Amino acid sequence: xxxxxxxxxxxxxVGSRTLQLAAIRDPVTYRQRQLKVEEMLSFLSQRVWARxxxxxxxxxxxxxxxSYLIVDENLLVxxxxxxxxxxxxxxxxxxxxxxxxxxxxxxxxxxxxxxxxGFGCKVETGHYLPNxxxxxxxxxxxxxxxxxxxxxxx
Length: 154
Prior knowledge:
Elements: H1 2-25, H2 37-53, E1 58-61, E2 67-72, E3 88-90, E4 96-98, H3 104-116, E5 121-128, E6 132-139, H4 141-153
Antiparallel strand pairs: 1-2, 2-6, 3-4, 4-5, 5-6
């Protein structure tokens, strides 16, 4: 949808700039550059996420794929959003998912932060009611090639 892509585009710039600002304000924490995918995602979901939203998010590997899930059970951005009933669908497990991606802004923030650190990726979002948000991070092939080169050099 157009609104979701606009939110993500705005979030991309915000994510990149807030990560740079955090590095200036707290150079000790942000001094070391992360080179591996899991280390960078862990850093993002713990330290950066806590700076953005006050609490850390959980990081999980998506089963059967080379993508990762960042899960926030009570996302600050969607806490006070009450979606219209036309944008809500029932899922098999009985929960409800919002078809309009209100958390696309945060997905853009994730993408901006990751790309500013050299980890090109695609971020997809799912907004489960009431406030749970799941972000699926899938990396570009160049990132995986670099990861393999790093493993070979160690």
